[in-house]
Amino acid sequence: MRKLLTLVLAVALLSSCSNSSKKTTEGKAVDLTAAGATFPLPFYNMVFKQYGEETGSTVTYGGIGSGGGIRSLKDQVVDFGATDGYLNDEQLTEMPGEVLHIPTCMGAVVIAFNIPGVDSLKLSNDLLEKIFMGDITKWDDIQITSNNEGVTLPAMDITVVHRSDGSGTTQIFADFMTKISEKWASQVGVGKSLNWPVGMGAKGNPGVAGTISQTAGSIGYIGSEFAFAQKISMAKVQNSAGNYVLPTIETISAAAQGEIPADTRIMLTNSSDPASYPISGFTWLIFYKDQAYNNRSEDQAKQTVDLLKWMVSEKAQNEAPKVHYAPLPAAAVEKAKAILSTVTYNGNPL
Amino acid sequence: MNTTENIRLQDTSKRRQLKDKLVLGMVVFFSLVTVSPIILIIGELVRKGYRQISLDFLIKNTPDTYSAMTAIANGERIPGGIANGIVGTLIMVVLAAAIAIPVGIIIGIYLYENPGKRLANFTRSLSDVMQGVPSIVLGLISYLWVVKHVTNGYSALAGSVSLSIMMLPMIVRSTEETLKMIPNSLKEAALALGTPYHKVILRVLIPTGFSGLFTGILLGISRVLGETAPLMLTALGSSMINLDITKPTSAVPLLIWEFYNDPNMIDLIWSSSLMLMILVLVLNMISKQIAKKTK
């Protein structure tokens, strides 16, 4: 019992020590906390670590999902949040302060397939609709074979694999499908989880990738960062210029070459750029325009903005392709920098 | 007549022996079926995770995704380890235990001393209800209480609070059950000698029931060790070792979730799970041993 009491005392002492040490370090290196989307988690963890090594401050990022990131920013328990889907106008008015978005990198949704003996597949918008709506059920259907001359497709049933959990990946995919198919738009629509006409569900990118690799004749959609790392067979998808494009770092970046609004809130699917892969999108960091909230010091506000600026700098952007994320094109970087220059602390520019 | 009776007797005894063996076989078979999942799980974890286990795995922080990727491409072991998670788990569990143990034992003693009182009955049924509360709900509560209002951000303290609420009912109930098993004469003897009440509790009841209390505590700890959901809402995670309980902190189950989401770190899922499993198993075995010794 006495030992137990000493243990309790020791822990209490330890915690009070660490409390007091925190106060003395304030003003020099500031520790930042962020939370949100899991899609850019590997990229963020890597660049935040590099930023920490350069500046001596620790940046902690928790991959708790886009919804969690928005919630945390709303509750003002983080310095900034991260999300795969931008906040719509209604969400923006619900926030306690004005919230800004900057894109940090790009990703895509790839169409992965597992057809024995086939390593290249071209899918027109029409075929995508018919396969994912369940209107075509065989791989050797004349509509698929006529679009893929020179490829021998087996007489095998098509198994559609989709996400069972709510996901930003599903949302981007559904957004693209809604743009290319009226039937999809009226019967399925857009959302983080959908009422699927056909197919089987699997959890997360690893779940979908695993199911596809184990099921001959299957097709599904996976986040590009995952598909590139795991070297999964991907289909060429038809973009709005009519070209069949394979997802690569370059073709994904090309999707952001067109007009981007000043607040960067845009879905990039079905981009008009002829070289673009059509199922691409931004991922954003979100933060308050006025950084003076919840007793945050000016140092902490400065550090936050410095980090955000660093995220769109050449150095951080050059890291993105190494871990299979597409960097921002120059136009998007300019927009992000312009947004960051409007950030204030108590009304004064930082 | 004698011989026919003998034969009949022999016959029934043979039949009985056969039945006996049949039942024994069934018992053994079903016991094996019951334990096989745990053996299969451990076997799978060892098979997939042993390659990553080394000293580095225990003393280094989580690697970034690029170094993991290059290591996989070169066919090497993924560098780094889960030290940030191990340290974070230890801090949070120790802190949670420091909150839950004193409170839990005091409530347990109260329940034992006043079995019939309305407040005691109410407390008892409440703590039984609390045992069934999903851990994610406790995470939400701790998010509202601690993250939003005490630490103004994600913190190890918030994680500990959610874990301690989870441990509390287990400690309360095990304390009460243990004390019930102590012969009443022991307490009466101490009181007859004129020992003050608080000394009876501290010097007689708790030391006599120590092993039972300890078992309850260890089982409580091993239950919260693997909790992920409440920590995602409270402790958040960190890629560095963090000793400040007001800052976000990592934990082994949180790291497993992060590895799951990173296509380059998949190999680390198995070794981290193996570590967590071993930790929980060892704690469970220790508590079983202590319980056995004192019975």
TrEMBL record, chain A:
Signal peptide residue numbers: 1-20
Domain PBP span(s) in chain numbering: 26-314
GO biological process: phosphate ion transmembrane transport
Coiled coil regions in record: none
Molecular-function GO term, any one: phosphate ion binding
Stored SUPFAM superfamilies: Periplasmic binding protein-like II
Domain of life, source organism: Bacteria
Keyword Signal: yes
InterPro entries cross-referenced by the UniProt entry: ABC_phos-bd_PstS, PBP_domain, Phosphate-bind_PstS
GO cellular component: ATP-binding cassette (ABC) transporter complex
Alphabetized UniProt keyword annotations: Phosphate transport, Signal, Transport
Membrane-traversing stretches: none
One Pfam family it belongs to: PBP_like_2
Subunit structure: The complex is composed of two ATP-binding proteins (PstB), two transmembrane proteins (PstC and PstA) and a solute-binding protein (PstS).
Record-stated family: Belongs to the PstS family.
Function: Part of the ABC transporter complex PstSACB involved in phosphate import.
Protein name: Phosphate-binding protein
Species, as recorded: Mangrovibacterium diazotrophicum
Biological classification of the source: Bacteria, Pseudomonadati, Bacteroidota, Bacteroidia, Marinilabiliales
UniProtKB/TrEMBL annotation, chain B:
A single cellular component GO annotation: plasma membrane
Matches recorded under SUPFAM superfamilies: MetI-like
PROSITE patterns per UniProt: ABC_TM1 (PS50928)
Location(s) in or outside the cell: Cell membrane
Principal location: membrane
MF-aspect GO terms: phosphate transmembrane transporter activity
Swiss-Prot/TrEMBL GO biological process terms: phosphate ion transmembrane transport
Protein name: Phosphate transport system permease protein PstA
Biological source species: Mangrovibacterium diazotrophicum
